[in-house]
Amino acid sequence: MMDIRPNQTIYINNLNEKVKKPELKESLYGLFSQFGPILDVVALKTPKMRGQAFIVFKEIGAATNALRSMQGFPFYDKQMRLQYGKSESDAVSKMKGTFRQEGGKRKDPSAPKKAKKAKTSATAAAATAKPSEDGDGADEAADLPPNQILFLTSLPEETNEMMLQMLFNQFPGFKEVRLIPGRHDIAFVEFDTDAQSAAARSALQGFKITPTHAMRISFAKK
DNA sequence: AGCACA
Fold this sequence. Notes:
- Keywords: mRNA processing, mRNA splicing, Nucleus, Repeat, Ribonucleoprotein, RNA-binding, Spliceosome.
- Belongs to the RRM U1 A/B'' family.
- Residues 87-143 are annotated as: Disordered.
- One of its GO terms (cellular component) is small nuclear ribonucleoprotein complex.
- It comes from Amphibalanus amphitrite.
- The strands form 4 sheets. The chain has a 4-stranded antiparallel β-sheet, covered by helices on one side. Strands 8-9-7-12 form a 4-stranded antiparallel β-sheet, with helices on one face. It has a two-stranded antiparallel ribbon with strand order 4-5.
- The protein has helices at residues 21-32, 60-70, 90-96, 121-128, 161-168, 194-204, and strands at residues 9-13, 38-42, 53-57, 74-75, 78-79, 81-84, 149-153, 174-180, 183-191, 208-210, 213-214, 216-219.
- The protein has 2 domains: 9-96, RRM (RNA recognition motif) domain (Alpha-Beta Plaits, 2-Layer Sandwich); 149-219, Alpha-Beta Plaits (2-Layer Sandwich).
- The chain is an alpha+beta fold and 222 residues long.
- The termini are far apart.
- It binds one DNA strand of 6 nucleotides through residues 4, 9, 11, 13-14, 40, 42-44, 46-54, 56, 83, 85-87, 89-91, 101, 106-111, 113.
């Protein structure tokens, strides 16, 4: 059913309602940021809004791509259903400078909060101040010859098997993910062939599972 | 099933 006109926000439903909000948002962010920059992920657990989420992309093209690619994607044991959002997200209006509180139309629970918290540039600087391990030999593995097993590094602490499965699952030839007990930061992902592992590798190289952690993918040592 | 953002 071709219903709603393209929108840079994707509306998702049929999500697993048992997943807690922070985890849900993180996983959605990880899963969808492969299509392009994301402005916001909105998920509410209110009776009306549970099981649904909004992914706000910077570009409509990214949203369209996501819509086509992720329709029916198995996510926490349910198939996600995607549509374009019906209206413009606040994150978009804010970016365009057209954001209005629409006096009265929307619920105003209490005090009018006019000023949003300003991101201090100190915070922003701290966020980017993460040392990047360029040039200190940390990426010697880049030279390993292709094989069917990928080696993931720089994984954030909250990584779990399901998140990695969701990411790598979508590539042909996927076999399994192996986590290492006692190490949250590395994992192995196996494919049927080295061509298939190479394709997944280039697609997901630098993928941000969380906004601050870009994972690194190399081929495993044989 | 359910289209919000505090």
